Amino acid sequence: MDFSTKLSRLSRRGFVxxxxxxxxxAALTGCGAYDNAASGGSRGSDNGFxxxxxxISFCLDYTPNTNHTGIYxxxxxxxxxxxxxxxxxxxxxxxxxxxxxxxxQAQMGVSYQDYIAxxxxxASPIPVTAVAAIIQHxxxxxxxxxxxxxxxxxxxxxxxxxxxxxxxxxxxxxxxIESDGGDxxxxxxxPYTVDDEVSGxxxxxxxxxxxxxxxxxxxxxxxxxxxxxxxxxxxxxVFDFYTPVIAxxxxxxxxxxxxxxxxxxxxxxxxxxxxxxxxxxxxxxxTAVPELDSALAHRSAQxxxxxxxxEAPTWGIIDGGRWARYYQWLNDNSxxxxxxxxxxxxxxxxxxx
Length: 353
Known about the structure:
The structure is a single chain. It is built from 14 helices and eleven strands. By secondary structure, it is α/β, with parallel strands linked by helices. Helix 7 links the parallel strand 7 and strand 8. Helix 9 packs across helix 13 and helix 11 packs across helix 12 (278-288). The protein starts with a helix and ends in a 21-residue tail after the last helix.
């Protein structure tokens, strides 16, 4: 599969597979379609002497997509440079960003609340902390063919579900089905073997699949393929966890707190621009990453414009109660290696409000 195809087939599977699988020495690959030099150079100072820039490597969780739009906007418009930062956008060679951030190869990057739970509970904890929410609510759920009439979790009975064979994933499916009065044992689990959920539904490789509304559902609309979709948060509030988040290396937070604050100030400006002008922000993303499907990127940008901040007073806020509720559920169901502090793994100390 070429890079262009991978970009147009962004899936939840791409985010979830490999959690905890990478060693701290994971190899990195640069975000080749983007010229990072736009943020380079020294920032001017009041006394006329150049001020040193702080260099930050920011690791994406996957190939560039609309979740990352605010970062690309901040890079393109010089918001990072305004803060005295030189930001390099990179990707993990495979798997996730957490080991790359935790090892210090990247100082900041994109993670998820469920990933950070694994980081905290592993035998060798990965030192990564969430410092801002990219999207205010969990926008994932179940997508299926329109003709099958699966409009809630109970409707998954007697249907096939494409699974990644992960305990947290399957426990989530079981919870929402049973909460809806259904019988989880009547759902047939089949291996997830595709990167494009729409193609998988068309080929009838599965009947139901876990997707992100901002990408897969928009992809179905772009392809004019009729689907049904219901969100997890419409079924159970425990699943309104934070996915994705901006995370930082713990040592970097301790040694460069002002750089973390500066990065978040610039990122906030980038995401606020994406909220106010989704088409222009999608143009910036597609210019930086021309392999992206422009129609899909623009449709996704329109959807996410209402999701980045949603009803929160400002972009980036993490609600401690929601965070703790999800971690308590993981603890109660023994879905992680060991019990964790439900209030651990996040901070709002560096996000100016």
